[in-house]
Amino acid sequence: MKLGALEELQRVWQVTSMNYDGILIGIGTFLIIGFLHPVVIKAEYYFSTKVWPLFLAAGLLCIVLSVVTSGSIVPALLAVLGFSLLWSIGELFQQKKRVEKGWFPQNPNRKK
Q1: In the list 13, 30, 36, 85, which could disulfide-bond 59, CB 3.0-4.6 Å?
Q2: Are 80 and 28 in contact (CB under 8 A)?
Q3: Do 40 and 92 form a contact (C-beta atoms < 8 A)?
């Protein structure tokens, strides 16, 4: 009977010691992309494409921080955020084209 209890304990330990890092990184990636989509739209609306250097600086900073941060989840999410911010630079210019096509509203108060 003791051997059965030991096997049951090992089975429970295997189930509870699963690695959830990948799932957490996936959820974080989903949230980062979902957060940056409206940020790009609002940034283009209020500031035009002039803010692209901020996206560049923030992206590079996050990438550097991902390299020097220990652990697995936080550095991965910093890298995802950094590269998503770099990707957002291109999206910022694409958003400008979408505004020019009339797909999104142009800010009437912004000087050209």
Answers
A1: 85
A2: yes
A3: yes
The token pair at 23 is: 């799932």
Q: What pTM did the predictor assign?
A: 0.81
Q: How many domains does the chain have?
A: 1
Q: For residues 105 and 99, is the Cβ–Cβ distance under 8 A?
A: yes
Q: Any idea what the Cα angle at residue 8 is, between residues 5 and 9, rounded to 5°?
A: 90
Note whether residue 72 is domain-resident.
yes
pLDDT in tens, 39-58: 999 999 999 999 999 999 99
Using the structure block, give the residue that is written with the tokens 């210019």: 93
CA separation for the pair 80, 100 (Å, rounded): 30
The CA–CA distances, whole Å, from 40 to 6, 24, 29, 70 equal 55, 24, 16, 30
Query: What phi and psi values does residue 69 have, to the nearest 5 degrees?
Result: -95, 135
The span from the CA of 3 to the CA of 8, in Å, is 9
Domain membership flag for residue 32: yes
Domain membership flag for residue 71: yes
